[in-house]
Amino acid sequence: MKQQPIGIFDSGVGGLTVAHAIKQILPGESLIYFGDTAHLPYGDKSAEAIRYYSQRITKFLLEHDSKVVLVACNSASASAFDYLKEEFSDKTILIDVIDPVVDFIATKNFRKIGIIGTKRTISSGTYERKIAEKAPHSSVVSMATPLLVPMIEEGFIFDDISNAILRSYLSNETLAGIEALILACTHYPIIKNQISKIFNFNIEVLDSSRVVAIILRDLLEKRNLLNDSGQVNDRFFISDYTPYFGKIAKMFFEGEINLQKADIWS
Length: 266
Ligand code: DGL
Fold this sequence. Notes:
six-stranded parallel beta sheet, 11 helices, binds D-glutamic acid, four-stranded parallel beta sheet, Rossmann fold, alpha/beta
């Protein structure tokens, strides 16, 4: 069990931000990553469609012996996590990317928090509900920013186009007066510095990657599941070839990566 990989999935490159944080905190672990590039973006899909994709991908990760399945996608965490727990929690350990961020927020004293994410995540109201429960001292405003995922997947980052789109979104008066901004999409940490700069580095910009990696480490430690064999093998699967996936993955994982297409939909 200890040597089995950590399964991670997202619609595309977004979950790599979480995978990267895991690699930094748990370098001895093997990862198996699934990017569902054939169905990207998830944020525009119905909750039912995202549930179906998430169930099938979780099965794939379990067929590859994942000791943990990490839902490294906010849209899937908001729409499918409860269903995945019902179906798979007797077979594996499941982790989402929303609860760890909410637990972190609960330890802070932010008066007003902004949330940006996909249409699916924002319309689900999951963050608002959970923050109201665990951090009632914080008021929350949220806004869907649907152009950001295609923008990032197409490689428009740290350039004039992405700056114009971000400025237009982030100057919306809904976000006036926030002390912290939650990046409620795992793609967004790729442009975290660009976002912080637009706020003149005056607010805290929070994302799930590090808090999730820490929770995972604590969990594996507690259950005596840390890989101590010294053997690491990371594998990356995508459901369709996109030019940018390999490029971003190499950026995060330095050098050659083992990338394969897995046709799990036919
Ligand atoms: N990175 C994902 C999320 O956190 C999915 C984005 C998308 O495919 O729309 O929501």
